[in-house]
Amino acid sequence: DLQICQHRAPTCCTKKMEESYQAAVRRERTQSIQALNFELKYMIVGHITAFQEAFESLLRFAENRTSSLFETAYRPMAKEAAEPVKELFTDISLYILGAETTVESAVLRFFDSLFPLVYSRLINPGITDLSEDYTECLRLTRQDINPFGHYSKNMVTELSKSLWASRMLSQALSLGIEVINTTEHAALTKECSRALVKMQYCPHCQGLTLIRPCVGYCLNVMRGCLASVSELDAQWREYISTLEYLTNEIAASHDLEIALSGMWNSINEAILHAQLNGPQLSATVDKVCGQPRQQEGNLSSANIVPVKEVTEAQTFVMAHASLNNKRREFINYMKRSRTFYASIAERLCDGDLVMRDSSTCWNGEDVV
């Protein structure tokens, strides 16, 4: 009653043993592919972590530098500006990770929050009545009167160019892991599991436990079993090319590090522009939002924030170098894996599975 290991000679196998062998080849095939995938997956996961750490380090540097700007140059509003600054960099971090947001919405929301502070602390430092309604009016007016000139739009343009490639790379790395995980658990067809049993276990039914499959026979079986996986070859090569393009984009003119490290300067220029145009802005705001209550005398000392010492330059240089090195290492490794899916059958038939150094091997029917 054997279905797979039928042979003219006497056999020590039963139908139940054949079923056990089919379960074994499924398990072994998954384990073999997992072992092949392990290094590739380990490298991608390792680089996802490394890129993320480098991104976060650069973002922390840029955030510290921006906070420092407020604490040194714009002390009257530093305390209240802390939250919008934090939100801006959180939004940028989420954008890189693939969240449904845009750089433009993050930057413009920041400037919407910044304008009421610039207006009430720098342009008209005597304002005390900053009610919710008045603050909201200032936020909405910012979009119409454009107090920060072209600096806010320039910042959107610069960041969008540099962060786009980082976001795409982050998503592409996650996609790579998804593809690898899917190939590990691709279901074996009935024909494939029978062919694997015939190749690996049918010799056992005749007591030939040490004989191993012939190389050509193994390749034919594996190529048949892995036809759907090896079809990924063209797409995988294209995927590697895309990774190469993205890493080059990040390293090219739209440099992430330069864009992030220059954010504080763009914000500073924007605030200076608003201050220079203070009288015109005040006239327009008074018409739209009305005149708030004023207080004579000095500002409250509660707005004065102690300056934090930030050792930024070294951190930035290290994060910059780290990210560049990680890019190079990663793309060089991925280029070597370009033929990963094309050569998967050859790699599974390598090593202990087949008989390489002997002229005697199993061809699926007999020892040859």
From TrEMBL:
It is a lipid-anchor; GPI-anchor. InterPro entries: Glypican (IPR001863), Glypican_CS (IPR019803). It is found in: Cell membrane. Keywords: Cell membrane, Glycoprotein, GPI-anchor, Heparan sulfate, Lipoprotein, Membrane, Proteoglycan, Signal. GO terms for biological process: cell migration; positive regulation of canonical Wnt signaling pathway; regulation of protein localization to membrane. Cell surface proteoglycan. Belongs to the glypican family. PANTHER family: GLYPICAN (PTHR10822), GLYPICAN-5 (PTHR10822:SF19). This is GPC5 protein. It comes from Oxyruncus cristatus.
